[in-house]
Design goal:
Elements lengths: L1 H12 L37 H10 L1 H10 L8 H11 L5 H19 L3 H17 L1 H5 L5 H10 L2 H6 L2
Helix pairs in contact: 1-3, 1-6, 1-8, 4-5, 5-6, 6-8
């Protein structure tokens, strides 16, 4: 699962989108992804451990799911491409609502393309927006660098708990 996580993070950090979510303070991403709402709810756990999601991971493989996840922020058909562009354009000035909308879009895109549950793909939406926000400096110039990966793992380590994988 770490491979899919790193593939996701390394593929998406280049987009330099922000999230502003603070998993340490219990902020969830809310909405379609089902990761907790914006009212300070704790990040859920074990969202990808149900039998249906496990069957999809077994069939598609974590690497293929990571590739789908890496493409969703730029998926115009899903509506995420425009959101990604807006968040990138606004940078740190992007509202929390806009960032949450992007995370929800990414989660829905992954769910639509893979069949994974909304709860499971909500973890992917949350990690995508968190990692790209928390590691902008480390990853903007070198998205595939070890520094970028370390920053993402250090600042957005809730992903493994959220997915349960």
């Amino acid at each position: 699962m770490k491979f899919a996580y790193l593939g996701l993070v390394l593929g998406l950090v280049a987009a330099s989108v922000g999230c502003g979510r603070d998993p340490a303070n219990g902020g969830g991403s809310g909405g379609t992804g089902g990761t907790g709402g914006t009212g300070g709810s704790a990040m859920p756990v074990d969202q990808c451990t149900n039998a249906a999601d496990q069957a999809i991971f077994d069939e598609l493989g974590a690497a293929a799911i990571g590739q789908v996840a890496a493409g969703c922020p730029f998926n115009a058909e899903a509506g995420c491409g425009g959101l990604t562009g807006m968040v990138i354009g606004l940078g740190e000035e992007a509202s929390q609502e806009l960032r949450d909308e992007l995370g929800d879009c990414i989660g829905a895109c992954i769910s639509n393309e893979t069949g994974l549950s909304a709860g499971c793909t909500g973890c992917y939406g949350a990690i995508t927006t968190c990692a790209t926000s928390m590691c902008l400096d480390a990853c903007a110039a070198a998205p595939g660098s070890q520094e970028c990966a370390n920053c993402s793992l250090q600042n957005c380590g809730f992903f493994d708990d959220c997915t349960g994988l």
